[in-house]
């Protein structure tokens, strides 16, 4: 966080402003009240302690799990009196994802101003935070919120860039979770293939969710294994068997279209998925 605050981009200025605001005495007292009402937040007596403890999430699996617990708790406690501070804390915790999404959109859609992109990404995340749909979830808050933020922001960027005539459709492949060398048409075919597998009972919704979390979103095997009550080795074997099953189905017949080319494209894209081709 300290390294990012040296930057003067719009997102870093927002982060600095949020931190300054949370240092105000009224917000310090508000957080103390929140912490006393929660067994999860009570482990962090101050705002700074909370933010410091959730640093370096990409490197530590248990930190990711803890981050998910904290955000879920903040969402549940964001009633009328706690709304502002809860939302500010969620924004600060998810600031790395805001940075990453803004950077990817600016890189892929060069006609869009960085300040405009940053403002839209933050606004999109705030709308997601305030949505009632999240309150029905029991886990995967970070995954759901960041995924929605990325998808909605990329759709907005595509619409805006179409207006200026300079949109880069290749960025949609990145947004879908695959590297640039995976053709967008192939990604669309894979989506249809997986949809047909669900419809025909060859793949369950739970299996698809785990596969996307592991291979596309890059959630570590140790984290997913812990959440599914399996050992990490057992989880990896399960994912391997699932991908092998999809390979056999794709080679045997294409559920979307009987054409050989579609089947070949589907198998090729599954191979990329098996290698963990992810730019998200």
Largest sheet: none
Low-confidence runs = 1-5, 163-182, 255-261
Number of discrete domains: 2
Helix-strand pattern, N to C?
HHHHHHHHHHHHHH
Helix content: 55-70%
Arithmetic mean pLDDT: 76
What does this structure look like?
This protein has helices spanning 10-22, 25-36, 47-53, 61-76, 83-93, 95-108, 114-130, 141-164, 170-175, 184-199, 205-216, 221-228, 232-252, 260-274. It is an all-alpha fold and 280 residues long. It has two domains: 4-156, no CATH class; 179-274, no CATH class. The longest helix is centred in the middle third of the chain and has 24 residues, at 141-164. It is globular and about 65 Å long. It starts with 9 loop residues before the first helix and ends in a 6-residue tail after the last helix.
Q: What's the layout of helices and strands?
A:
Layout: H1 10-22, H2 25-36, H3 47-53, H4 61-76, H5 83-93, H6 95-108, H7 114-130, H8 141-164, H9 170-175, H10 184-199, H11 205-216, H12 221-228, H13 232-252, H14 260-274
Write a brief structural summary.
The chain is mostly helical and 280 residues long.
Keywords:
280 residues, mainly alpha, 2 domains, 14 helices, 69% helix, disordered N terminus
């Amino acid at each position: 966080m300290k390294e990012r605050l040296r930057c003067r981009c719009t997102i870093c200025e927002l982060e600095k402003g949020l931190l300054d605001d949370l240092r105000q005495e009224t917000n310090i007292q508000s957080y103390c009240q929140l912490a006393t009402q929660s067994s999860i937040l009570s482990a962090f007596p101050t705002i700074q302690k909370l933010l410091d403890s959730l640093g370096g999430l990409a490197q530590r699996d248990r930190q990711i799990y803890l981050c998910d617990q904290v955000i879920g708790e903040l969402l549940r406690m964001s009633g009328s009196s706690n709304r502002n501070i809860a939302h500010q804390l969620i924004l600060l915790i998810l600031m790395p994802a805001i940075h990453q999404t803004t950077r990817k959109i600016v890189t892929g859609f060069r006609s869009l101003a960085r300040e405009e992109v940053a403002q839209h990404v933050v606004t999109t995340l705030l709308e997601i935070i305030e949505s009632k749909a999240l309150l029905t979830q029991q886990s995967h808050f970070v995954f759901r919120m960041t995924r929605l933020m990325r998808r909605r922001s990329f759709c907005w960027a595509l619409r805006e860039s179409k207006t200026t005539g300079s949109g880069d459709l290749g960025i949609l492949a990145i947004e879908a979770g695959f590297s640039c060398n995976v053709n967008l048409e192939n990604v669309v075919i894979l989506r249809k293939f997986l949809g047909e597998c669900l419809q025909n009972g060859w793949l369950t919704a739970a299996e698809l969710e785990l596969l996307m979390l592991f291979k596309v979103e890059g959630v570590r095997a140790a984290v997913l294994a812990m959440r599914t009550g399996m050992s990490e080795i057992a989880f990896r074997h399960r994912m391997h068997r699932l991908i092998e099953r999809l390979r056999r189905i794709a080679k045997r017949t294409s559920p979307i279209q009987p054409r050989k080319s579609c089947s070949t494209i589907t198998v090729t894209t599954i191979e990329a998925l098996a290698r963990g081709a992810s730019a998200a």
